[in-house]
Design goal:
This protein has about 280 residues and is α/β, with parallel strands linked by helices. Helix content is about 45%, strand content about 15%. It has eleven helices and eight strands. Strands 1, 2, 3, 4, 5, 6, 7 and 8 form an eight-stranded mixed sheet that branches. The chain is globular and about 50 Å long.
Length: about 280
């Protein structure tokens, strides 16, 4: 039996996913493939590298560090997430990723990115964190529109995967998994509303397909949530989602909010462990 794991993004709402993944690791839940979007990819890599607690630890320690992420980084580098700090110093020195374990782990891992020219999602397999292009793909997956520079990979420009495919339920179902675990970062019933499109028209005027993707994003997202909920009712997928709303900012500096989001992921997943085991063994 092949098990797939789908991880929605959501910036610091992704601390919910961190808590959920730590519980899955504690309970020795093994999967065969992971599809991560944005924060789902950046935090989800710790599942493959077998490092429970790491993402919570460094977010609590560095959330108030101006060189980590925030407006200081944006106005000094053009990226809300500081490239040098997040994708070099942090992962190599301050709280290192276990590269060897990640690279040797059996789970397949895909990061979702958005191609700026086509406006379409791409799914880049990440199996070697020492590969510069693969690390750049991870960075691209979490490069939020408007507050991040495009990430260039082999001459193509990419941004946050959530722009084109926030919840890639169709993609993961195409991959042939027998069971699929979906971790969302919004509570039951949440739907997106149409946003102001003027900024996209100005910022990305050279990328008409991307503008269209941004314009249609709320519709695509809501359709994906509808599909996940329908599949959940039929027992086709198992969904872990926040049982309540946490007022956490996309770039959160409050340590108590970060801990609260993580703790909710832990408690919700612990409460669902018996149901999850029944689903996986049915």
């Amino acid at each position: 039996m092949k098990i797939g794991l789908l991880l929605e993004g959501g910036a610091m709402r992704g601390l919910y996913t961190v808590g959920a993944l730590d519980v899955l690791m504690k309970n020795n839940i093994k999967v065969d493939g992971i599809v991560g979007v944005s924060a789902g990819a950046l935090f989800g890599l710790n599942y493959k590298s077998k490092q429970p607690g790491r993402a919570l630890r460094y977010n609590l320690k560095y959330c108030q560090e101006k060189k980590y992420m925030g407006w200081y980084s944006f106005f000094t580098t053009g990226n809300i997430m500081n490239k040098e700090f997040c994708f070099d110093k942090l992962i190599n020195e301050l709280d290192p990723v276990d590269y060897d374990t990640f690279n040797n782990s059996e789970e397949d891992f895909w990061a979702v990115v958005t191609n700026m020219e086509s406006g379409k999602p791409e799914y880049i397999k990440i199996d070697n964190l020492r590969d510069i292009n693969q690390m750049e793909a991870l960075r691209a997956s979490g490069s939020m529109p408007f507050v991040s520079k495009p990430v260039d990979i082999n001459g193509k420009k990419y941004l946050d995967g959530g722009t084109a495919d926030s919840i890639p339920i169709d993609k993961i179902m195409e991959m042939g998994f027998d069971k699929i675990i979906v971790i969302l970062t919004r509570p039951q019933g949440y739907r997106k509303e149409e946003g102001n499109q003027q900024l996209a028209k100005i910022k990305y005027r050279k990328y008409p397909n991307l503008i269209n993707t941004i314009r249609e994003r709320y519709k695509v997202y809501n359709n994906q949530v509808d599909k996940v909920e329908a599949l959940e009712k039929k027992g086709k997928v198992f969904v872990i989602r926040p049982s309540r709303k946490v007022d956490i900012k996309r770039i959160e500096k409050n340590k108590e909010r970060i801990q609260e989001m993580y703790d909710l992921g832990v408690s919700d997943t612990e409460e669902k462990m018996e149901q999850l085991n029944n689903y996986l063994n049915s």
